Amino acid sequence: MTGYQIVLILVGLGHAVFMILEMVPWSNPYLLRRMIDKKLAGNSFTPDQNTFVANIVKNAALYNGIVAAALFWAAYTQERELARVLLTGVTAAGVFAAVTLSPAAWAQAVLGMIGIIALYLA
Question: Which sequence spans correspond to the domains of the chain?
Answer without folding.
Answer: 3-121
